[in-house]
Each structure stands twice: as C-alpha cells, then as structure tokens.
Amino acid sequence: MLERVGADELPTDAVPRLERRVARLLGKPAAVLFPTGTMAQQVALRIHADRSGRRVVAFHPCCHLEVHEQKGYSAVHGLTGQLVGDRHRLIGLCDLRAVVQPLAALVLELPQRDIGGQLPTWDDLVAQTQWARDHDAMLHLDGARLWEAQPFYDRPHAEIAALFDSVYVSLYKGLLGNSGAVLAGSEEFVDHARIWRWRLGGNMTTAWPVALLAERGLDQALPRMAEFATRAREVAAALGTIPGVQIVPDPPQTPLFHVHLAAEPHAITQAAHELLEQRRVQLFLYTRTTPSPRSCSFEITVGAQFDDFTTDEVRDLIADLLDRALANSD
Predict the structure, then answer these.
(1) What is the predicted pLDDT for the residue at 330?
(2) In the predicted model, is pLDDT for residue 94 greater than 60?
(3) For 283-308, what is the mean pLDDT?
(4) In contact, 270 and 240? CB cutoff 8 Å
(5) For 121-152, what is each residue's pLDDT tens digit?
(6) Residues 32-59: what's their mean pLDDT?
C-alpha cells in the first residue's frame, strides 16, 4: 500500500494517544485499548489471580461477568466466582464480611447497572475497598459507566480510580462510540494485559477509528455528564407522576435509571412497536422482567439524544406507552 499521509495526521497515532489520555484522566501510570469490555475485565481478573495464586474472584450477583458472558471467567481463565450480596440491592460491608474464602480480587461496578444505576455513598465505597485491602484482595473497577457515575461523587475520575488496582472504562455507552474499552493500571499490569490481549486475539491493527470516536466522546459527551444527570432527575420526576409508573432509584443517581411499569411485558413490547411505527420514536431496546408477571421495566439513559425532546414530551410518550399496553391487555 502506497499512501501519502501528513506528519501530524497519522491515524496510527490515535490509539496510543487515547491510551495516554485515559491513563491521565484515571490517574493511572498506563492504559491499554481492548476491543471489548468482556475481554478487558476477564484479563484483569486473570492477571490479579495469577499474581496472588488465588482463583476466587468476588462480585455482585448482577455483575456483567456473571450474567452476560457465559461464565468466560471460568471457562477461559479457570477462575471461581463468589457472588456477594443480594441481586436487588448494592453490596454492603456486611455482605463482604460474610465472605470467608481468600479472594484474588473484588470487583465493584460503578454504577450497578442492573439495579437502576445505583451507587454506594463515598464513605461506603471507601469502606468496601479498605475491606479488600485488609484481606489482601486486589480491587478491580467495572467502570463501564464511570463517566456517568463521576458527577454523583463530585470528585475527579482519578480520585475514584485511586481506590482500585485496575479500572475498565467503556468507549461507547456514555461516550457514544461504536465499540471498545480501555483497561488502566500500573505499568507492569498493563504490560501483562497487552500480552493477554494478543493471546486472545484482541490486538487489532485497525483499532484507530475506535480511538478517534472515543476521543470525540471525551471531548463532547464527557463534559456534559453532570448536565445529563440533572436532566435524568427532571425526566424521572415527571415520569413518576404517571399512575402505574415507578422510578428506580428515585431520584436517579446517574443519567441512567429504570422505569417500572404496571403492565405485562408482552403488552409493553407491543405498545412500543406501535409507537415506533406511528410516532417514529424508539423508547427502549428491550424490557426486563420482574418477580410479578404483570409488571416489567426498561432502562433509560439520558444523553445527547434527549436534546431533541422536552420533558413533557417524554412524559407523554411513556404515558401513551402504558395506556396502549393496558388496552392491549384487556
């Protein structure tokens, strides 16, 4: 391939530039780009386990590693998962004190997506990470949505990340990229992570577009996260006035929250399809079941897409959704 490229416009510079930028933002010595968060997090836990000689890693029952990855941590890396706490609430210090097995690592997700984007208080978070230190367990942060969590703590990203030995952040989700993840930690940790990335087939020479999109997200979306969180609370307050609607958590702690509806899942899904066809608005990708077959929930993440809607318009859409679902159930 023969191509003339300006000295200041080499696309291959994008990946190392992004890695350095994220490392600085998180206050870590180094960082490495991965194609997926699934690969990044499993690699992080594998490294911590190999270093400690322990094979047990602990995490919340709704952790992505447990729920959405076909137990890759076990099948690929030979690790044992220890579920901590109740799936419907955040991990508490009392839950950690009940853990008796020596741990290679403790994984904490900020925010805990599957229970509505909930976050522990800063004091609770510090106490939990100190418990891990006291028990010689490494600490890994599932920070897929750390960008959205940071305004809640009103502390720099680096101060939050300093509680952890390794940190994973997503390059899409809140940053509106199309894929990618970054894993940050010490120089030695990142050197090992690069080796594992190669072993697992994640060393892509064509990753520079992912990095360029991530940089755009850091420039344009990251500065608006506090604004998005404020807007989420406004939207949630409006939705909470609709009979048959419950917000979790109420009020939202991040731009992400769950909307619980007093209607059957299939009826809500049918109503959502009708709204998409008739009003050209997609409200959600899928519903979540609840213990009651007569209710369900879906997730809202407030971002730049909400610039196109007033809060009253959002309330009207959800009210219309529920009315249609109840009519479909009759």
Answers:
(1) 64
(2) yes
(3) 94
(4) no
(5) 999 999 999 999 999 999 999 999 999 999 99
(6) 98
CATH homologous superfamily for the domain 223-329: Aspartate Aminotransferase, domain 1 (3.90.1150.10)
Token output for 312: 């009253």
322 CA to centre of own chain: 28
Contact 182, 136 (CB under 8 A): no
11-220 maps to CATH 3.40.640.10: yes
Distances from the Cα of 281 to the Cα of 17, 106, 304, 313, angstroms = 37, 40, 15, 11
Q: Which stretches of 115-252 are assigned E, i.e. beta strand?
A: 138-143, 166-170, 181-185, 245-248
- 56 in helix, strand or coil? strand
The answer to whether the pTM exceeds 0.85 is yes
Residues in the chain, how many?
330
End-to-end CA distance of the chain: 65
Strands (E), the chain: 30-34, 56-59, 80-83, 105-109, 138-143, 166-170, 181-185, 245-248, 256-261, 288-289, 296-301
Cis peptide before 249 (omega within 30 of 0): yes
pLDDT at 141: 99
Residue 158: exposed, middle, or buried by beta-carbon count in 10 A (0-12, 13-18, 19+)?
Answer: middle
Q: How confident is the model at residue 9 (pLDDT cuts 50, 70, 90)?
A: low
Give the CA angle between residues 261, 267, 273 to the nearest 5°: 105
**DSSP type of residue 174:** G
Residue 5 class from Cβ within 10 Å (0-12 exposed, 13-18 middle, 19+ buried)? exposed
Helix axes 225-239 and 311-329, enclosed angle (nearest 10): 40
Q: Domains of the chain: which residue ranges?
A: 11-220, 223-329
Q: Is the pLDDT of residue 1 over 60?
A: no
Tokens describing residue 93: 């210090």
The residue among 242, 286, 281, 248 whose CA lies nearest residue 266 is: 286
Residue 204 is predicted with a pLDDT of 84
